[in-house]
């Protein structure tokens, strides 16, 4: 009975986030810090769950891991968020107005329909970007640092090379006509799903949830250190449905995660990783 309740934590969290944006008073949802509070609150909640419902002892968080994770969360919300809004979402919004692009049918749809459309459209782009990163060397060099993590924790989805973090944040949702609360619900619910998908929490959600949304079982196999070929599956960050549609879904789980020799990279090594072939060639020549 206890484990059954633990298994319901991911869907219950997503439902709570949807309910907050859908029915909470405007004074709560329209504050300038509301989306950040929901996002960071979810991260903190799942991180605390790791202490109570640990999945693997080998993934247990320590001080160094926690500090690195917190740094990347701040970097993601601050730098990557700013760059995405300034270089992509803002210009797309202007293009939408200039070209008269509209989705009135979506604006007239029920709240939850708008939320799901935004989530699935955004994840469609993320799926193909992520898949390209595993199948084209230049992009893989930006993504590989994320696969060098040797344990999974709640905030690990934020870790990676800055180029990859920017590329994986891109989407076309700025072209959609949606209620602002629905947009925020989609963003924060997707973040919650991805958080659980990286977390050291002993929760295996119901089959219906795992059919559409990514779980730690799906994503731990994607991070496996046992076979590089097995990392070329389950690309969905929060929506696993597109993997099922395009034939890249694979059942399984892996407790051993990492890449190559499973050496944990420092932040400096993660940021310089795309230059690694050039740096090694230069070192050999010297």
Automatic annotation (TrEMBL):
Pfam families: FA_hydroxylase. Keywords: Membrane, Transmembrane, Transmembrane helix. GO terms for cellular component: membrane. It comes from the Bacteria. This is Fatty acid hydroxylase family protein. Residues 115-248 form the Fatty acid hydroxylase domain. InterPro entries: Fatty_acid_hydroxylase, Sterol_Desaturase_Related. GO terms for biological process: lipid biosynthetic process. Its main location: membrane. The lineage of its organism: Bacteria, Pseudomonadati, Pseudomonadota, Alphaproteobacteria, Sphingomonadales. One of its GO terms (molecular function) is iron ion binding. It is found in: Membrane. Coiled coil: none annotated. The keyword Cytoplasm does not apply. The chain crosses the membrane at residues 7-27, 33-53, 65-84, 104-124.
């Amino acid at each position: 009975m206890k484990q059954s309740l633990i298994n319901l934590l991911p869907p219950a969290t997503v439902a709570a986030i949807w309910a907050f944006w859908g029915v909470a008073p405007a004074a709560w949802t329209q504050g300038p810090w509301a989306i950040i509070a929901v996002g960071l609150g979810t991260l903190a909640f799942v991180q605390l769950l790791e202490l109570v419902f640990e999945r693997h002892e080998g993934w247990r968080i320590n001080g160094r891991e926690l500090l690195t994770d917190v740094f990347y969360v701040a970097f993601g919300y601050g730098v990557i968020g700013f760059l995405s809004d300034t270089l992509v979402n803002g210009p797309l919004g202007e293009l939408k107005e200039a070209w008269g692009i509209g989705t009135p049918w979506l604006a007239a749809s029920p709240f939850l329909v708008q939320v799901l459309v935004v989530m699935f459209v955004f994840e469609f782009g993320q799926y193909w970007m992520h898949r390209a990163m595993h199948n084209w060397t230049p992009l893989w060099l930006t993504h590989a640092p994320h696969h060098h993590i040797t344990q999974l924790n709640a905030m690990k989805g934020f870790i990676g090379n800055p180029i990859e973090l920017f590329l994986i944040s891109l989407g076309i949702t700025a072209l959609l006509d949606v209620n602002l609360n629905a947009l925020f619900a989609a963003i924060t619910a997707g973040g919650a799903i991805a958080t659980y998908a990286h977390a050291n929490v002993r929760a295996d959600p119901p089959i219906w949830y795992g059919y559409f949304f990514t779980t730690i079982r799906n994503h731990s196999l994607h991070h496996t250190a046992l076979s590089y070929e097995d990392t070329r599956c389950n690309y969905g960050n929060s929506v696993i449905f597109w993997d099922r549609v395009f034939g890249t879904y694979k059942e399984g789980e892996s407790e051993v995660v990492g890449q190559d020799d499973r050496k944990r990279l420092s932040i400096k090594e993660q940021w310089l990783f795309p230059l690694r072939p050039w740096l090694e060639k230069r070192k050999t020549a010297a």
